[in-house]
């Protein structure tokens, strides 16, 4: 049973990573004023977050951060995603994202995933 829960937690981690990209992209689209700025901010912020994640957080990242810095970095990035949703008017989604991220990160540490 625990092995199934561990697999679910890893799947949740991946889904949270994707949701992070959507959250910062959504924030960029909603905060900019003109259509061009909305497009640049929405796509640009999501792309920037993907680059940061790919360079420092992904399992095969070229500059994988050592623990505890990796944990702290994930915590900060997920907090940015939750804050982005919250400030873009999606308070419920922001809180849900933060809660799921905290649960996921806690289980990743407890289960040494």
From TrEMBL:
Q: Does the keyword Transmembrane apply?
A: yes
Sections of the chain in a coiled coil:
none
Going by the UniProt record, its keywords in alphabetical order are: Membrane, Transmembrane, Transmembrane helix
Q: Which residues cross the membrane?
A: 12-29, 35-56, 68-86, 92-111
Q: Return the protein name.
A: DUF2568 domain-containing protein
Organism of this sequence: Thermosporothrix sp. COM3
